[in-house]
């Protein structure tokens, strides 16, 4: 299931102190500046489009910068936002550590920041004197957990022998993997994770490394792919090794891919468009002086056999 | 003329049979294979052999193309981006209803054409190859993003799967294609004028020109071949997933392709190297990558392991050459850095 | 059937240097045309223009009276004009046969006919008595063989005009004689127009039908060998008639019999099988041997460039075992190598920078170079040899002979205790050659220095050296000969004899 | 001496004043700056100038280090990974309580030491620089992942922020550091023996050795300098974010650093190039990157735009040189590929 915009799991919240806002916020069409990690992943393509559409609806001039997965370009872009004296920034950090530095810079320049999808490292934000108006994103850990549950349910009494097709260098994906592993070992003492490979969030690389992982570990009966591109590669790897029926895939949802009853049996989707919409709406509220929640954890949307996630429902 | 001393037995032997230059790195490959096989039963399985080669086929094609360019003393940085471009162009053509074999040939043609443009820029505009192909890389990695809006393009024609997923006589089609291409390439280098001219241009451009070699044609040909090899990579990548992704091939592929060639003895300074060598280099890299995943090496350690294995491999190869007692060949690199410019040169003793 | 290739008012400027200034020259088929001139006179430039390797700024090239445009060497080849350039233009990573047939490969049905090419190549190698096989990689061959292979490669082509730029510099006397005969034969029997650039008057006069002398890019003299005398040519090149020969000079300034500076005892390496020598202060020690006998290796061994497997050296009374040329230089040894292009100079460095490279230590204070002082010292050193050409440009743009002069002045600047010279006058014009001979002798006879000289030119060796050591097959007899006691014929006999016989004999 | 004809006016002028080699690419830089300034008001702002240089400072340092290595005829692929390693080592040292200036110096020392190891492998093991530094890259990109488990390390000592975020006389400290380092580097190349030796080794290794150059020391020095420059990059990157992230520097940095040097006229074949040139190249690349972001060029188009601008820039520079009537320099690449080996050779006029 999916809850509507604005559902809040956090408490407190913040309200826009109109006096502290940048001058730009008082113009007719204040600028909402968005910085996204890349636009080669359909996930961010959907998010960008939603920011453009919903931002305009909410009365903003929307400016989107793409960091090409580089922390330093993202920092540069944030600095350029400060220069251009934008009203409010929506930041999807490339990585959360450096994201904190960007938040701190923006706070120093008195520009309110919303983080979306990937949060900035909170400890560093605190120690650096920054503040984040609101975080909007999926509950990553929940995503890993529900997929583990689905896997165990499908296996019945059999233990899950898991291989992870992962991205070990990002905190969000590591959270997913950890939650998956914790759930699966907690619920079934005989289940375990036996291997994990680095997919680099690239379908082609995923295909290669997952085939190799399955070669090395013929005992694997469950693959957990922690991103959409990894899911795409994993599906092909399982199919092409002729392991369809023996190995089942649970994943964060791949684009344009239908689930089935044999191989790709469950996926958890985030809703990038929805997160962008929430941020745009709440940013508009915030600059009008209204209170917005500090944390918005959207539950992941779960898909099973026969379903196909929509264009903007991705891993 | 220079004295031959038959009393120096080893010299006579040396003359009678000389191991080909590729022997050293081939032995290294065997050792690496042996170590992984000892470590993991699954690695020893026949099917893993197929998968290893299959997974290495794209880098293998890039290394093949790169070899032609490196032999002329150039470098092709656009070869990974070529995968991205051709990898989405092919499914777009298929969508337009072009039968897959024709679409595949057209894609290869486009690859060769785009490569030829790099060659033309290198030769006529006289821009260093690094810059010309750096620009080509930029263009070729933008094109698929622009065309597709960063969306993937699904292949609609199931026949196309043959290229990446088919088998011929039990061998995966990409591997068959690569082997064929490598054999053709090696024959081309050895048995055609153009092949010898590639070596000549890389060995000494000025001298080749004075001898009447058509430098323009040779240079353009090398880049066109590399482009075509890149297009093979794009076809295989897309066919394996049956989806074209606009950012495929922009990862380690380029690096690995150059490294494969260099490991196999191809000189970055041109004129030295062979296709069998480059292919052994590519298989070595594929083996290490495959072996690390099969034996579950932690991904954090993987760059280190691959770096160290390749370094050791090349070092062993270098040492073996130095033992052959041919001072000028002491080290290929020395030969290149000094011997090359340095005509007769100094014994590499520094 | 005759024909002619002609230059009409050709000019070519390189930066500040006018290399050719309205040159007219006519090359007739069936004749050998000797082209002479001082270093930097423009000989090589003229050849390059005639073969499409470079294009003139103005003027025209005609074949049988009609103008031709040679945009690239391939155009010239098509017109039957083939050149052998001063700087070897073979490709080291290719085999002898690949080089011989480059851009003119034999094919059958589009496929290279390697067997046929190897056959032809082996025949050519046999014909020119080159110790190599068709499949030898060029890199493994000595310079002399490469030089011959290049000539052979030119002759193999369908040639009407053959232009050779100093083809004899790296060759032994017998090889030179054979080559010259070949050229004469080709000109007359095959009706080829041969241009021979050469600094040695003897060689030119022995074969040429016609001689042209260039000075500063202009034709100063041109005529048939019947009309032109040696004195005319000498005057054209050096501005006056040749000075007394080096040999005469030596007898005028007798050498001292100084103490032994360097003594080498039974050194061995991969290709040296026991060489001993003693170089004494105040004397020039010449080393003679056939090409490939190991002369260069002896010098390189002394200079720390050859890994020794046995023997020992003593320098100035102390054991001397250089680990590298840097060690040797620190010990007061200087070396001029025989292949200037390959390991002589740094091509992008200006002559000045090349000259001071080994002695930069001298111009350092507090770790910082005193470039002004270095420059002054370099200019002084370069001033001792007259250099034609722009010194404000990288050395690669000087003519071959002038590059050699720069390297010689570099060695002089080191003011070494022992000076090792390997073919020091390679490519140097007759005027400068005499000066260099004087310089070498001055340097040695000045007192506390020793010179070791390797030269393929017997006259030079006999003229400049005080003592001569003969090396054969990497071995020396260990016996010195007084140069004044020797003749060219004796030298050759010694070189051919076994060292043992030489010991017993003479 | 050879004849001089004063009636040829332009030549006389040429002699009187010769534009330095870097002029061409500098003019290209000015044009690019002009175009972006015309397109965007924000680009023109003074503070953008600071930011542009600030963002370019890491690549600038890498390009500086790369220049030393390229001059010797080598290449350093490990320079990006050096950022990753030193970028997490520094905050770890700070955590251990080491005062930041000392930690910074130690980090630089580690960078130089690690670079020196590459140099040692290149020189003594005689492995081609591409392979040696490829291995170094693997090791240096694994180390920070292994140490940190892919987590970032927060800087605890606020004083450390000075390196990346401080200002001196209104100029960002990284820019000041880079300018100082570049000036020192340029002085080093011109006014010290070791500097001259770097060029000599790259120009003709064999000849340099015979002229008494210590090849080993020179090679090792070049790689050590490059390592130290990489460590500067790591310090700056970490200090700007106040967090060390084990993946920093593994993106485009390496490529851009080589491209910057090559754009600025440094030859990949060694012996040719200058630090001012490499720095102009780095600023050009930083300008294009910054300009594209400020003027909001669609990210899909960015690789294409940067590639094309750099290609055009180098092509214009090449053309300008060719007009100088200086045959050996007709094309830098030609000069390198032929002129170099072929000494006087033939004017590259093919
Ligand atoms: N590529 C070049 N760039 C600049 N100057 C050049 C170039 N080639 C030749 N020159 C200059 O042109 C002049 C004529 O040189 P050339 O090589 O023709 O002389 P040469 O008569 O062959 O001399 P040598 O006997 O020393 O070989 C010299 O001053 C030389 O420095
Ligand atoms: N195969 C080779 N290996 C190493 N060095 C070589 C080789 N061939 C030639 N050289 C180098 O070229 C130089 C000349 O070659 P060559 O073998 O003729 O030397 P050499 O025996 O000293 O002859 P010469 O007596 O004619 O000088 C040598 O000093 C050596 O440095
Ligand atoms: Mg000449
Ligand atoms: Mg010799």
TrEMBL record, chains B, D:
Keywords: Cell membrane, Membrane, Transmembrane, Transmembrane helix. PANTHER family: ABC TRANSPORTER PERMEASE PROTEIN YPHD-RELATED-RELATED, RIBOSE IMPORT PERMEASE PROTEIN RBSC. It is a multi-pass membrane protein. The chain crosses the membrane at residues 23-39, 51-71, 101-125, 131-155, 167-189, 220-243, 255-288, 300-319. It is found in: Cell membrane. It comes from Galbitalea soli. This is ABC transporter permease. GO terms for cellular component: plasma membrane. It holds the Pfam family BPD_transp_2. CDD domains: TM_PBP1_transp_AraH_like. GO terms for molecular function: transmembrane transporter activity.
UniProtKB/TrEMBL annotation, chain C:
Residues 5-241, 256-498 form the ABC transporter domain. Pfam families: ABC_tran. SUPFAM superfamilies: P-loop containing nucleoside triphosphate hydrolases (SSF52540). InterPro entries: AAA+_ATPase, ABC_carbohydrate_import_ATPase, ABC_transporter-like_ATP-bd, ABC_transporter-like_CS, P-loop_NTPase. Keywords: ATP-binding, Cell membrane, Membrane, Nucleotide-binding, Repeat, Sugar transport, Translocase, Transport. GO terms for molecular function: ATP binding; ATP hydrolysis activity. PROSITE patterns: ABC_TRANSPORTER_1 (PS00211), ABC_TRANSPORTER_2 (PS50893). PANTHER family: CARBOHYDRATE TRANSPORT ATP-BINDING PROTEIN MG119-RELATED, D-ALLOSE IMPORT ATP-BINDING PROTEIN ALSA-RELATED. This is Sugar ABC transporter ATP-binding protein. It comes from Galbitalea soli. The lineage of its organism: Bacteria, Bacillati, Actinomycetota, Actinomycetes, Micrococcales.
């Amino acid at each position: 299931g999916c809850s509507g915009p604005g559902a809040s799991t956090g408490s407190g919240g913040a309200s826009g102190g109109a006096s502290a806002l940048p001058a730009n916020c008082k113009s007719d069409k204040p600028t909402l500046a968005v910085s996204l990690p890349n636009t080669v992943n359909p996930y961010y393509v959907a998010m960008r489009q939603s920011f453009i559409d919903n931002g305009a609806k909410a009365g903003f001039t929307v400016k989107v910068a793409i960091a090409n997965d580089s922390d330093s370009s993202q920092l540069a872009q944030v600095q350029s936002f400060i220069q251009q004296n934008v009203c409010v920034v929506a930041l999807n950090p490339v990585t959360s550590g450096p994201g904190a530095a960007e938040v701190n810079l923006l706070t120093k320049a008195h520009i309110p920041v919303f983080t979306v999808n990937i949060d900035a490292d909170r400890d560093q934000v605190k120690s650096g004197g920054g503040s984040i108006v609101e975080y909007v994103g999926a509950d990553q850990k929940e995503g890993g957990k529900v997929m583990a549950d689905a896997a165990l349910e499908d296996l019945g009494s059999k233990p899950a022998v898991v291989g992870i097709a992962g991205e070990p260098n990002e905190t969000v994906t590591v959270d997913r993997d950890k939650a998956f592993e914790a759930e699966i070992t907690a619920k079934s003492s005989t289940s375990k994770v036996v291997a994990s490979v680095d997919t680099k969030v690239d379908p082609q690389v995923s295909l290669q490394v997952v085939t190799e992982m399955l070669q090395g570990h013929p005992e694997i009966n469950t693959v957990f792919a922690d991103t959409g591109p990894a899911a795409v590669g994993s599906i092909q790897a399982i199919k092409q090794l002729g392991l369809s029926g023996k190995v089942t895939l649970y994943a964060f949802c791949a684009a344009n891919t239908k689930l089935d009853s044999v191989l790709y049996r469950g996926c958890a989707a985030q809703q990038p468009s929805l997160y962008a919409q929430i941020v745009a709406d709440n940013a508009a509220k915030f600059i009008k002086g209204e209170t917005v929640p500090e944390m918005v954890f959207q539950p992941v949307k779960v898909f099973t056999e026969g379903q196909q996630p929509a264009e903007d429902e991705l891993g | 003329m220079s004295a031959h001393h038959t009393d120096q037995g080893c010299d006579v032997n040396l003359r009678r049979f000389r191991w080909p230059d590729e022997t050293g790195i081939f032995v290294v490959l065997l050792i690496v294979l042996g170590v992984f096989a000892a470590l993991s039963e699954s690695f020893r399985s026949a099917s893993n052999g197929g998968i290893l080669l299959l997974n290495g086929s794209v880098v293998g094609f890039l290394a093949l193309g790169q070899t032609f360019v490196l032999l002329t003393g150039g470098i092709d940085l656009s070869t990974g981006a070529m995968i991205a471009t051709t990898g989405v162009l092919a499914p777009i053509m298929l969508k337009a209803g072009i039968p897959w074999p024709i679409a595949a040939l057209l894609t290869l043609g486009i690859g060769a054409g785009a490569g030829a443009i790099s060659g033309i820029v290198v030769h006529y505009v006289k821009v260093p190859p690094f810059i010309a192909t750096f620009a080509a890389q930029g263009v070729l990695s933008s094109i698929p993003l622009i065309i597709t809006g960063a969306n993937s393009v699904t292949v609609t024609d199931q026949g196309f799967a043959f290229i990446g997923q088919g088998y011929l006589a039990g061998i995966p089609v990409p591997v068959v294609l690569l082997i064929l291409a490598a054999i053709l390439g090696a024959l081309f280098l050895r048995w055609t004028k153009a092949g010898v001219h590639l070596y000549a241009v890389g060995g000494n451009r000025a001298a080749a020109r004075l001898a009447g070699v058509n430098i323009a044609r040779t240079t353009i040909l090398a880049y066109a071949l590399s482009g075509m090899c890149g297009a093979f990579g794009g076809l295989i990548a897309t066919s394996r997933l049956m989806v074209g992704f606009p950012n495929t091939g922009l990862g380690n592929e380029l690096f690995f392709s150059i490294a494969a060639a260099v490991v196999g003895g191809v000189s970055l300074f041109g004129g030295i190297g062979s296709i069998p060598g480059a292919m052994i280099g590519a298989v070595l890299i594929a083996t290490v990558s495959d072996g690390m995943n099969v034996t579950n090496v932690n991904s954090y350690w993987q760059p280190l392991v691959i770096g160290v294995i390749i370094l050791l491999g090349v070092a062993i190869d270098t040492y073996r050459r130095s033992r052959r007692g041919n001072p000028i060949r002491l080290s290929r690199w020395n030969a290149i850095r000094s011997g090359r410019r340095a005509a007769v040169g100094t014994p590499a003793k520094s | 059937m005759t024909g002619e290739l002609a230059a009409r008012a050709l000019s070519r400027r390189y930066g500040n240097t006018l290399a050719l200034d309205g040159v007219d020259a006519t090359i007739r088929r069936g004749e050998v045309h000797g082209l002479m001139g001082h270093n930097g006179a423009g000989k090589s430039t003229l050849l390059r223009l005639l073969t499409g390797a470079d294009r003139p700024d103005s003027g025209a090239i005609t074949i049988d009276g009609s103008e031709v445009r040679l945009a690239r060497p391939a155009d010239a080849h098509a017109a039957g004009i083939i050149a052998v350039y001063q700087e070897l233009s073979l490709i080291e990573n290719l085999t002898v046969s690949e080089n011989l047939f480059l851009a003119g490969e034999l094919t059958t049905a589009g496929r290279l006919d390697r067997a046929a090419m190897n056959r032809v190549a082996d025949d050519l190698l046999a014909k020119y008595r080159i110790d190599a096989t068709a499949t030898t990689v060029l890199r493994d061959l000595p310079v002399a063989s490469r030089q011959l292979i290049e000539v052979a490669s030119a002759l193999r082509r369908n040639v009407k005009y053959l232009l050779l730029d100093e083809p004899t510099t790296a060759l032994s006397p017998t090889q030179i004689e054979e080559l010259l005969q070949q050229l004469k034969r080709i000109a007359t029997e095959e009706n080829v127009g041969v241009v021979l650039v050469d600094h040695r008057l003897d060689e030119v006069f022995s074969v040429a039908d016609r001689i042209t002398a260039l000075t500063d890019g202009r034709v100063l003299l041109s005529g048939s060998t019947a009309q032109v005398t040696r004195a005319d040519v000498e005057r054209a090149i050096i501005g006056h008639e040749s000075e007394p020969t080096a040999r005469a000079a030596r007898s005028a300034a007798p050498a001292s019999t100084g103490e032994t500076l360097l003594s080498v005892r039974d050194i061995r390496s991969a290709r040296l099988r026991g060489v001993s020598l003693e170089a004494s202060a105040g004397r020039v020690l010449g080393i003679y041997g056939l090409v490939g006998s190991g002369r260069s290796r002896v010098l390189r061994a002394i200079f720390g460039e050859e890994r020794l497997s046995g023997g020992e050296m003593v320098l100035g009374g102390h054991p001397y075992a250089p680990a590298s040329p840097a060690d040797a230089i620190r010990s007061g040894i200087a070396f001029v190598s025989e292949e200037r292009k390959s390991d002589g100079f740094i091509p992008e460095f200006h002559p000045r920078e090349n000259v001071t490279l080994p002695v930069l230590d001298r111009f350092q204070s507090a770790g910082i170079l005193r470039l002004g002082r270095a420059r002054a010292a370099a200019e002084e050193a370069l001033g001792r040899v007259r250099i034609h050409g722009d010194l404000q440009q990288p050395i690669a743009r000087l003519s071959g002979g002038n590059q050699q002069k720069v390297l010689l002045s570099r060695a002089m600047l080191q003011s070494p205790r022992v000076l090792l010279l390997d073919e020091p006058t390679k490519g140097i014009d007759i005027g400068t050659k005499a000066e260099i001979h004087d310089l070498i002798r001055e340097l040695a006879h000045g007192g506390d220095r020793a010179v070791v000289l390797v030269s393929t030119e017997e006259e030079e060796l006999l003229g400049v050296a005080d003592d001569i050591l003969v090396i054969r097959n990497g071995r020396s007899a260990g016996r010195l000969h007084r140069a004044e006691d020797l003749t060219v014929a004796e030298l050759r006999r010694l070189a051919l004899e076994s060292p043992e016989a030489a010991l017993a004999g003479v």
